[in-house]
C-alpha cells in the first residue's frame, strides 16, 4: 500500500506504505515446483492462534494470510485456537495428519515448535516472532515497531495532557519491543512527554480486564493509548470512548471499530510473507530462517482514520508522513529489541 497524493486537509486515509520489492528470504534456492493436481491437493497448511480469528486484530491478520495461501496456492488449510500446554500437542496432531506447514502465531509458539519439530522432519514449523530456528523451524520478524514509533510520535505531538500510555495482554518480548518503540517515537517528538509504563492485564480475550487496565491508564491522565490486547482490544476501545480519549489500533487496521475514537492503526500485512513462506515449503526449498518484514517490503503500515482527519492538525499529518519516509529510507532507525 503506497502512500499517494497526501492531502492533509481532505477526509482521506493516510496509509504509510513503500515501494514494493521482490526480495524474499527464500530466494536463490533450487526450486522443485509441484506440477500435478494430485500433489497440489496434498499441500496442507495449519494455523494456531492464541485467540479467535474474529478479533479484527492479531489473530485475524494471520487468518487472512492463511486464507490467501488457500486462494493463491490451492492448499488445504485449517485453524484452531491453542495456548499453554496444548500448543505442543496441537502441533504434533497436525504433523501426524500430514500437514506440510504449521504456523504458530505468536512468540509463545517458538519454543514448543523447536521441541516438536525434532520428531517431524517432514513438517515445517514457523512462528510469528521468536529466535529459535532449525532445519524445519523458522520465524517471522514483523517490524511492527515502525508503526508503534509513528504512533508514539503522533501522540506526543497531539497530547493535551502531556501523558500517553499503553495496555497489553502479556509482556512477551515481541510485545515489549513494540511498546518501547512507541515510547521512543514519543520522546523523539517531545522529550518532555510522560509515557506511562505499560499495564498488562494478563488473560487472552478478557475484554473486561482490558477495559479495567485501560481505565487505570486513563486515570493517570493519559489521553492517547495504544494496545497489544489481541482479542480483548474492544475493552481498550470502549474505555477510551467513555472517557473521550484517543486510542490507536494495532496489528490490523482497527480504525472502523464501532467505538469511534481509534485515531490511527499500526498494521501488519501478512499476505506476502505468508505466501512467500508457503511457496518455499511447497517447493521443498525451505530451510529454517527468520524472515524480516517491514515497511520496505509492504508488510508494515500506519493508517490514519479518515473519519478523524479533522482532529489531526495538518502539520502533524505532514510530520508523520515525513517521518515514515525517513524510516523507509533508513534515515531514521527505529529501535528494536533482540529476541
CATH topology of the largest domain: Rossmann fold
What's the total helix number?
Answer: 10
CATH superfamily descriptor of the largest domain:
Response regulator
The profile of the biggest β sheet is: 7 strands, mixed
Give the averaged pLDDT, no decimals. Answer: 88
Q: How much of the residues is beta strand, in percent?
A: 15-25%
Number of domains: 2
Q: Low-confidence spans: pLDDT under 50, at least 5 residues?
A: 1-22, 28-40
Distance between the termini: 28 Å
Based on CA atoms alone, the radius of gyration comes out at 20 Å
Q: So, CATH architecture of the largest domain?
A: 3-Layer(aba) Sandwich
CATH class placement of the largest domain: Alpha Beta
Write down the secondary-structure element order. Answer: HEHEHEHEEHEHEEHEHEEHEEH
| Class from secondary-structure proportions | alpha/beta
Helix content: 25-40%
Query: What's the shape?
Result: globular
Please count the beta strands (DSSP E, at least 2 residues each).
Answer: 13
Primary descriptors:
alpha/beta, disordered N terminus, 2 domains, 10 helices, six-stranded parallel sheet, Rossmann fold, 339 residues, globular, 13 strands
Amino acid at each position: 500500500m503506497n502512500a499517494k497524493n497526501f492531502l492533509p486537509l481532505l477526509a482521506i486515509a493516510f496509509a504509510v506504505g513503500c515501494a514494493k520489492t521482490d526480495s524474499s528470504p527464500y530466494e536463490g534456492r533450487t526450486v522443485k515446483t509441484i506440477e500435478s493436481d494430485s500433489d497440489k491437493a496434498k499441500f496442507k497448511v495449519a494455523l494456531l492462534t492464541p485467540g479467535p480469528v474474529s478479533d479484527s486484530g492479531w489473530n485475524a491478520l494471520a487468518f487472512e494470510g492463511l486464507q490467501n495461501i488457500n486462494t493463491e496456492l490451492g492448499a488445504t488449510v485449517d485453524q484452531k485456537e491453542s495456548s499453554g500446554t496444548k500448543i505442543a500437542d496441537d502441533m504434533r496432531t497436525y504433523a501426524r495428519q500430514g500437514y506440510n506447514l504449521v504456523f504458530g502465531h505468536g512468540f509463545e509458539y517458538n519454543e514448543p515448535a523447536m521441541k516438536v519439530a525434532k520428531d517431524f522432519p517432514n513438517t515445517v514449523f514457523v512462528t510469528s516472532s521468536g529466535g529459535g530456528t532449525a532445519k524445519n523451524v523458522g520465524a517471522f520478524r514483523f517490524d511492527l515497531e515502525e508503526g508503534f514509533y509513528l504512533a508514539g510520535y503522533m501522540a506526543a505531538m497531539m497530547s493535551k495532557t502531556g501523558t500517553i500510555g499503553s495496555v497489553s495482554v502479556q509482556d512477551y518480548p515481541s510485545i515489549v519491543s513494540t511498546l518501547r518503540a512507541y515510547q521512543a517515537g514519543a520522546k523523539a517528538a517531545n522529550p518532555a512527554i510522560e509515557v506511562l509504563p505499560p499495564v498488562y492485564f494478563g488473560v487472552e480475550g478478557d475484554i473486561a480486564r482490558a477495559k479495567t487496565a485501560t481505565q487505570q491508564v486513563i486515570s493517570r491522565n493519559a489521553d492517547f493509548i495504544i494496545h497489544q490486547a489481541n482479542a480483548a482490544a474492544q475493552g481498550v476501545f470502549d474505555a477510551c470512548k467513555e472517557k473521550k480519549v484517543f486510542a490507536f489500533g494495532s496489528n490490523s487496521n482497527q480504525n472502523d471499530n464501532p467505538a469511534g475514537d481509534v485515531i490511527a492503526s499500526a498494521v501488519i500485512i501478512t499476505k506476502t510473507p505468508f505466501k512467500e513462506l508457503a511457496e518455499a515449503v511447497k517447493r521443498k526449498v525451505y530451510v529454517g530462517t527468520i524472515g524480516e518484514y517491514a515497511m520496505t517490503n509492504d508488510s508494515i503500515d500506519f493508517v490514519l482514520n479518515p473519519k478523524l482527519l479533522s482532529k489531526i492538525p495538518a502539520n502533524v499529518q505532514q510530520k508523520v508522513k515525513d517521518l515514515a519516509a525517513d524510516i523507509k529510507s533508513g534515515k531514521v532507525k527505529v529501535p528494536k529489541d533482540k529476541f
